[in-house]
Amino acid sequence: MKSATTFLMFQGQAHEAIEQYQQWFTDLEVIQIEYMENSQQVAMATLQLKGLKLMVNDSVIQHNFSFTPSTSIFLECESEEEIKNLVNQIEESGQALMPLDHYGFSKKFAWIQDRFGVSWQLTYS
To answer: Which residues form the PhnB-like domain (predicted)?
Structure first.
């Protein structure tokens, strides 16, 4: 096996999602991005966030499924301020599956699904 990478398949929103994620996560790096001919649809992009490699694309085939909350990106925040800011930004146009709170296993934890359907678990211990 050469590598293992998280793959996020969008249906026409990949470019918009990448731009949004760059705003939320200032250290998100776009390693490479290719667009489909004459469009803003992402043929393939490679992103890096805190050592996590993400591949992103727009499917050329419409599917009857999207992201599921049971698969999520887990982020360990460095401060209470950081987790509050990220939760507020992601939740703004998304929805809280578990609102920011103390759940026993973490001083501060939230599980948020963003407006694109991608789920993010955030913790601050």
So the answer is: 4-123
